[in-house]
Design a protein that fits this description.
- The structure is a homodimer.
- By secondary structure, chain A is of the alpha/beta class.
- Helix content of chain A is about 20%, strand content about 40%.
- In chain A, strands 2, 3, 4, 5, 6, 7, 8, 9 and 10 form a nine-stranded mixed β-sheet that branches. The first copy, chain A, has a six-stranded mixed barrel with strand order 1-14-11-13-12-15.
- The longest helix of chain A has 13 residues.
- Strand 13 of chain A pairs antiparallel with strand 13 of chain B, so a sheet runs across the interface.
Amino acid sequence: MNNLDSLVAAVVERLFVPVEASGRHVHLTREQVMTLFGHELTQKRPLSQPGQFLTQERVTVVGPKGEIPHVAVLGPARKEAQVEISLTDGKLLGITPPVRMSGQVEGTPGVLLKGPAGELRLDQGVLAAQRHIHLNPEQASHFGVRDKQVVRLQTLTDRPVIFENVVVRVSPDYEAAVHLDYDEANACGLGQGDLGRILP
Amino acid sequence: MNNLDSLVAAVVERLFVPVEASGRHVHLTREQVMTLFGHELTQKRPLSQPGQFLTQERVTVVGPKGEIPHVAVLGPARKEAQVEISLTDGKLLGITPPVRMSGQVEGTPGVLLKGPAGELRLDQGVLAAQRHIHLNPEQASHFGVRDKQVVRLQTLTDRPVIFENVVVRVSPDYEAAVHLDYDEANACGLGQGDLGRILP
């Protein structure tokens, strides 16, 4: 990169946040991983958030009205299972996922998971992820926002949208990224490398 | 309705526009209807726009990667075929629909349709409908907008969104309604009877 390119990159980074679409995926406990696969999770590639990764493992999510095969399993294993789907997926499965922040599984619907080594009935854990922005403390300070703040985000996309109720999450473990689900990504015509602007 | 109810209804109607989700659907010429079904379209129920109706007839839409059965056919027959799908549907079919206003089919992708009486290959006609607002001239005047104007629309929904690039369409044949596709409807958490506000 020459000097101009790196200047432009620095300015873009200061003004905008990369927007990413999160496909449907599952988080599992270590015990549940063993039940479904009979072995530990194997990393396929790292995700934008440091330490998080896509695994080689896939599960079938089974609802009362339909099932979705080949659903991604993310690593590392967590303390509690969580199945993140879109409202479109929910229609197909026959499950209405409440819109929740990750981890807020209390009272959410359950679902059946099928893996190559076994099945697993979850009593709860199905949700549609509340749209959110990951930032580290330095980035949050640049944008003038704080952890748990609710902001509006304007997408610089094909079908521009201003998303309201976007939750800011700040942690030293994070890198700047807006996470939308596929309904939201398609509604704004999100493409590779698209950016968003946090509105004052 | 008592006086207060009707006053409230009148105020709501002056301030907000009903928001509707348009599912995937097909418009056909009279000749194409005969090819696919062997008989004329039969009305099932009227739609929000006067003169438009859902028919009893259904087609299977077949793309290079997948197919979608039981797709709604709307009536009356038109001068040109049009297949309105979401970007989510496009992914399943293996077709990338451009975002267009209804009727702007020039240069759009083609597709195969299968009906109970025959098949039909369309050379063009597949699009994702540009989000839009139907208004009659009196309603347009109340909202201070004109035909073809591009406005922003704030949804009063579970997951509130401000849609940019919403096209206003004015005709004496119309009744006030915002039309979103299912990606957009799910992105804003649209429910039955939800309203939108045209932003100045």
